[in-house]
Amino acid sequence: MSDQVTLTINETKVTVPATFTVLEAARAAGIHIPTLCFLKDINEVGACRVCLVEVEGARNLVASCVQPVHDGMKVKTHTQKVREARRSTVSLILSTHDQDCLSCARNQNCELQTLAADLGIRETSYENGNDKKAVDDSSWSVLRDPNKCILCGRCVSVCKNVQGIGILDFVNRGHNTTVEPAFGLGLKDVPCISCGQCVVNCPVAALKEKDNIDEVWAAIEDKEKHVIFQTAPAVRAALGEEFGFAMGTPVTGKMAAAIKRLGADKVYDTNFTADVTIMEEGYELLNRINNAGVLPMITSCSPGWVSYCEYFYPELLPNLSSCKSPQQMLGALAKSYYAKEKGLDPKNIYVVSVMPCVAKKSEAKREELLEDVDVVITTRELARMIKSAGIQFDQLQDEDFDADLLGETTGAAVIFGITGGVMEAAVRTVADVLEGKDLDLLEFTALRGVDGIKEASVEVAGNTYNLAVAHGTANAKKLMEMIQNKEKDYHFIEIMGCSGGCVNGGGQPYVPAFDKLGVDVRSQRAKALYTEDESAPLRKSHQNPQVKKLYDDFLGEPNSHLAHELLHTHYHQRQKFNLGE
Amino acid sequence: MSKVCTEENFQELQQAIATHAGKKGSLMPILNDCQRIYGCVPKKIQLYLSEKLGIPFAEIYGVVTFYSQFSIEPKGDYVIGVCLGTACYVKEAQKILDEVKAKIPDLEVGKTSADGKFTLEATRCIGACGLAPVMTINEDTYGNLTKSQVEAIIKKY
């Protein structure tokens, strides 16, 4: 069989790989077939019947998302018959959907709304006869509103297959079907790691982040409060998408300028504490290696991953680095070091984290970490704040972050937002420390890219160190099993809860499923951060002059007593299900 | 109900798991056995199966709530099914159903009586339209029913 086939779509001959579906072939021919339940590589089930097309010789309309192409196939994508079938399907979906669109969190970026508009649905054909169902607001991160759910199953697939957890599933049958956790338990009573992958993949507002914008505005209005914003590296790689910039355009300068206009007293880059993390984590690793400590050491920056480990691999908690994540470190340093240097009362310092992540909202509410960060908002929430403040984001001149005390950053820090980035940054520093000199910069191509599990070995000072990187918790699970089966001796492992790392986090801008067909969101956004690393004057964390000053003036040395008090934490096994009995 | 959580039942469940686990599509036969052994698939057993089989709790709950042969609460010793399919319905099966509820204290559709004796179900068509209206009690079938016959039938159990 040839690798290529030629088919006719709407009178146009198209030659595509034989592995393509009709949907992919149409896209290649520049034809947009509407979809709803389809999510490339994640949910390809042909359930919603929105992508129906006419195929010559077929008895019925076929779902183009799962229909393979074949040679000589004749497809019609937008005939009267097809359009009517799609319209009646979507009209029926709308009949069970809570249509308060104007006040909905997904207003103007809802895939169902776009679909209804594209299909020319101008009237409600069927009344919504459903009773209002209870909204689950038990989680700090994710809000589940079953009244909006259209049963597409995208959340079910991503949670079960990409994250390997399976919190949500279809329950009951027929008209009574819902998507929810077992026994309708709240998200806080099940082992939900709050990664928010269900949120970014929901086409409507059935799953969304907990909105904390009002708390931020209140702090800004409060004259007593000294409001410090911090932005995680991945935010700059995606925020522009909310304002019409192409995916992968870094908008660091505009972001800093916009946050200053919102009324922040200071805007710092979480990159500063990413550099501090490398110091603390790097020395922790050396200490474990030199003193027969627990190995492999596993990174602890990703709160989705930390929760996963606490729920599913409690026996490996001693392997987790005791380092707090960079957002918590920045909060802790703002209320100690910064407060002291500036003569401020820590009680009046209010730290706002802007994160690509919804799990960070839950992290900041951990009992051990409660003091550090006051509120966490996502990239999407920041965009909403900028819009509601009337700031013309695309017109802004680039500005710098505040430069004092917590202001200097390196290229090593900015790649924290990508899978493999924390590891790469750590190796740049640890290798220099072990060799005792400024080595040529190591760029770890083996640790870059979107393969689920990546491995590398590095020779430093006559020893070989085995490294591994996993992203998405289903891959983390595989790696944990490899460790438990002692298949390989690793020294250091990086895990990020979301596939691709933070650039593809649960708090990042929505990308319609059809757009994801043509671009790997993870790689595209990663480019923005690699570019920023390459152009950074300093690319190794330990060379950050303000990090050096932090240790000289305040902390003493990495892993000092004070560093432990402020920058390290602990973990505990968590009960997976709370059945309330 | 006392018959639910005995050591003997648990051993039998272990057997069922040992027979089916590891094979593709093992969940359904295990759940069928569980329903037979316990008379239901209780919440704690679903959680146990989730851990044991490595299948998400929500998926198991989804399967149990999808198929009508499974129940979460224990069923009574006698399961009364009153057919409300089209043929039975037009032959006034609703009145039969109401009569069953009237004769057994506190019995509701989908529930089990307080003494654990009867469970009442309103079924879809059971394919005995010629006998409409039809009621089944476990394996027994009663056709061409009238409201006045109901009490005597129930008394037989």
Explain what this protein looks like in three dimensions.
The complex is a heterodimer of chains A (581) and B (157). Chain A has helices at residues 22-28, 80-95, 111-118, 154-162, 197-201, 213-221, 233-236, 252-262, 271-290, 303-312, 326-342, 359-363, 379-388, 411-414, 421-435, 473-484, 513-516, 521-534, 545-555, 561-567, and strands spanning 4-9, 12-17, 52-55, 62-63, 74-76, 142-144, 169-171, 178-180, 207-209, 226-231, 266-269, 297-298, 349-355, 375-378, 453-460, 463-471, 492-496. Chain A is of the alpha/beta class and 581 residues long. Chain A has three domains: 4-92, Roll (Ubiquitin-like (UB roll)), CATH 3.10.20; 133-209, Alpha-Beta Plaits, CATH 3.30.70.20; 213-567, Rossmann fold (3-Layer(aba) Sandwich), CATH 3.40.50. The radius of gyration of chain A is 25 Å and the shape is globular. In chain A, 52% of the residues are buried. Chain B is α+β, with helices and mostly antiparallel strands. Chain B has two domains: 7-66; 78-155, Glutaredoxin. Chain B contains seven helices and four strands. Chain B has helices spanning 7-20, 27-38, 43-53, 57-66, 86-90, 93-103, 150-155, and strands at 78-83, 118-123, 135-137, 140-142. In chain B, strands 2-1-3-4 form a four-stranded mixed beta sheet, covered by helices on one side. In chain B, helix 1 runs antiparallel to helix 2. The longest helix of chain B is centred in the N-terminal third of the chain and has 14 residues, at 7-20.
Strand content range of chain A: 5-15%
Strand content of chain B: 5-15%
How many strand elements of chain A? 17
SSE pattern of chain B, N- to C-terminal: HHHHEHHEEEH
Shape category of chain A:
globular
